[in-house]
Amino acid sequence: MPLIRTKKDLDQRLKNISNSLTLGLVPTMGALHKGHIELIKRAVSENGRVVVSIFVNPTQFNNKEDLKKYPRDLSKDLEIIKAVDSEIMVFAPSVEEIYQKNVQTKKYNFAGLDKVMEGEFRDDHFNGVGTIVEQLFNLVKPDNAYFGEKDFQQLRIIKKLVEIQKIPVNIVPCPIVREEHGLAMSSRNERLSEKMRLKAGFIYKTLQTAKEKFGTKSALKVKEWVVNQFIKEEDFKMEYFEIADIETLSPLKRKEKNKKYRAFIAVYAEDVRLIDNIAFN
Ligand code: PAF
């Protein structure tokens, strides 16, 4: 399976792909789990050739400790990808290869999508995501690019990025994959104890009940209820819970017919930051 380390090598290999084949890109930061595997399988089933990128992007981490602790295991990742399809091209560049000496974000105008929820608590995070994803799109020039709905805000912002930078790529959203007890799959889950990994199913259960309540109660009442559930659970520290319009991501004040809403949550468990979301209608 081709492991590509440089932009030059990537360019050479992409030139050898027949124009009649569509190209799929699955951008990742490695530490691959079942959620990533679903993205990769889908990309393989929908494209003639697939590139999986593995790059722990420093500019999207607002917390140095989080970047340091981010799980990295390239040889395990390569085994996982090979088991899906040995023809997949893996692009795993170094930080220098991507940023040279300038490890900086570009500044984008995401029309406020980056100012709420994750953006409120992770300064410059989405500029960092935009910087790397734009560079990957420019290098790989994929027809289709695959992103998980676990990072729904990221997905929405990447659609905005493609619109404002006029990048000709089809963004394919893929459903959240969950562990047996409901915790959304994430590379960060590896840092939880086994006990907490089971217990953290509580986050999704709370979102499911909040969704039921949303049928008859106001957004404010649902929010109050969720906040109270987490106050009672000492093992978790909730950072935010928001019900937002799926297009603008602005927090819901009053329910409107014909609008679609989603609830978003960020919670700390054993010092690990976990995020999740659920469609409300
Ligand atoms: O979702 C991720 O893993 C990252 O944010 C991404 C899209 C690969 C950019 O670094």
Automatic annotation (TrEMBL):
It comes from the Bacteria. Its EC number is 6.3.2.1. Keywords: ATP-binding, Cytoplasm, Ligase, Nucleotide-binding, Pantothenate biosynthesis. Pfam families: Pantoate_ligase (PF02569). It catalyses: (R)-pantoate + beta-alanine + ATP = (R)-pantothenate + AMP + diphosphate + H(+). It is found in: Cytoplasm. The keyword Cytoplasm applies. Beta-alanine binds at Q60. (R)-pantoate binds at Q60, Q154. ATP binds at residues 29-36, 148-151, 177, 185-188. Pathway: Cofactor biosynthesis; (R)-pantothenate biosynthesis; (R)-pantothenate from (R)-pantoate and beta-alanine: step 1/1. GO terms for molecular function: ligase activity. The active site is at H36. The reaction proceeds by a bi uni uni bi ping pong mechanism. Belongs to the pantothenate synthetase family. Homodimer. Catalyzes the condensation of pantoate with beta-alanine in an ATP-dependent reaction via a pantoyl-adenylate intermediate. HAMAP family: PanC. This is Pantothenate synthetase. The gene is panC.
